[in-house]
């Protein structure tokens, strides 16, 4: 995969229904100012994490990077738990996207059962992933491009409306002059939105999974990470600012949060007020591409994670086999089967069971981010302990050691406080439902440690080697250019 594929994979993984539909709810909850503060804070955290991921991935570009780094730099048991945690997260996400796809298609064809569309989309995405890594990258590039163009069009329309070129906005800053309501609900509301924003940004780390199949990962991965972060921040911060200007935070339409609420999406409302015809139908099509993009990315990421674990002895060896095009077909089929099972669980009316599956996976992304921060901190320590110089790193995270430490602390706060309202209210079942993913992760970690007797990896014993073909290509490129990479 090329640089454009990597960039769109990261962008596509983090821009979805959370921005197109649920973003209005964050403004309704915390006011326009509170939502901006929360998204900016999460953006800072993700920026630090992506720097950590970039440093490790550029040095050791492998498929399933998170579990490999956690295994090499923390402990084999920690890597085992991170790997299965991430695989399960995306496999269940695929199921969730299938359910959402059926809901979206009912906008146009309400008489066709949702399971028909879910089955068709699962078959199509599985076939696309089975072709090759390049086919996946190309498919994700175009799906993500639709989302990017939509966001850019939204930002442009919003700016024109603010300056009175479109629509009839009398005072574009009126919603920012409401005193304390700019930060409606105070710090507690901002903290709540902080959690929501964290979920919205999940998927940015997909570039690390794809690095193992990039053309020139040591050059392209850092470039993609640097460019992608600022683009995502522009999209999110810009969108929140424009929604805050054009739609009062008291507008009940902002409370819409599901795929079925396309008519109440802040994007739809702004486009309609700008005089754009068929805004709801157009946004429904965009939301469908966002859902398919998430399902496409989910299949790819979880397949490569299962493949990587099979090669490291943490999953059955059959999942480590590839076809002639380098695709781990058995790992792909196993992941698709889990997605199908999750969808069928929702289809047969076991809504509670399906909700619990989603809740189990809800914390998975944050746990993986914790793993990235912890792995990077120990990676750099081990790299120096073995006598290497940071000058020799293909990409160096500029804020080490503060970067991974700050990100780690912020993530722990997110995980602990993600549903503090239920904790304070004493709603035991709701607390269990929200936090069930954490004890399951810890259980995987501790049981594996008890069985294998694995210990924390010493700095002096860390495996810092990269795949041989990467080292060879770097050496050839260095000889050709007369420079070190």
From TrEMBL:
Coiled-coil ranges per UniProt: none
Residues of the Amino acid permease/ SLC12A domain: 5-458
Transmembrane segments: 34-50, 87-109, 115-132, 144-166, 186-207, 228-249, 274-295, 327-348, 354-374, 395-416, 422-447
Bilayer topology term: Multi-pass membrane protein
Subcellular localization, as worded in the UniProt entry: Membrane
A GO-annotated cellular component: membrane
Major place of residence: membrane
Isomerase is among the record's keywords: no
Alphabetically ordered keywords of this record: Amino-acid transport, Membrane, Transmembrane, Transmembrane helix, Transport
GO function term, MF aspect, one: amino acid transmembrane transporter activity
Family, as annotated: Belongs to the amino acid-polyamine-organocation (APC) superfamily. Amino acid transporter (AAT) (TC 2.A.3.1) family.
This protein's name: Amino acid permease
